[in-house]
């Protein structure tokens, strides 16, 4: 946790925000020898793949096998029966 004066923060704002965002550093802002604020990193961002990576744990054991078999059945039939949205 870094302590920084408000003046120094103003001078090094971009550098300090990079510390918070990329290194997870917390900043305590000091003005007139008093702690006036604390800047903490926001919640971590995840990609869709990361967010859904453990989704399989919530599914029943046979769900994966059923999904594979269902996805392979009638795939061509489903593709040929799709409606063209641009036809008027």
Major beta-sheet overview: 3 strands, mixed
How many β-strands, per DSSP?
Answer: 3
- Widest beta sheet: strand line-up: 1-2-3
Quick one: overall form? elongated
Radius of gyration: 26 Å
Mean pLDDT across residues: 85
In a few lines, what is going on in this structure?
This protein is an alpha+beta fold and 88 residues long. It is built from five helices and three strands; from the N terminus they run E-H-H-E-E-H-H-H.
Task: Summarize the structure in words.
The protein is α+β, with helices and mostly antiparallel strands and 88 residues long. The protein has two domains: 2-39; 48-74, no CATH class. The chain has helices at 6-11, 13-23, 48-51, 63-72, 75-80; strands at residues 2-5, 27-31, 34-39. It has a three-stranded mixed β-sheet with strand order 1-2-3. Strand 2 (27-31) and strand 3 form a beta hairpin. The chain is elongated. The relative contact order is 0.10.
């Amino acid at each position: 946790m870094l302590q920084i004066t408000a003046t120094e923060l103003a001078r090094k704002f971009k550098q300090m925000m990079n510390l918070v965002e990329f290194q997870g550093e917390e900043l305590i802002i000091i003005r007139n020898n008093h702690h006036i604020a604390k800047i903490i990193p926001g919640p971590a961002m995840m990609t869709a793949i990361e967010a859904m990576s453990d989704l399989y744990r919530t599914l029943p054991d046979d769900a994966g096998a059923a999904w594979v078999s269902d996805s392979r059945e009638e795939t061509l039939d489903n593709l040929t029966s799709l409606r063209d949205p641009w036809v008027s």
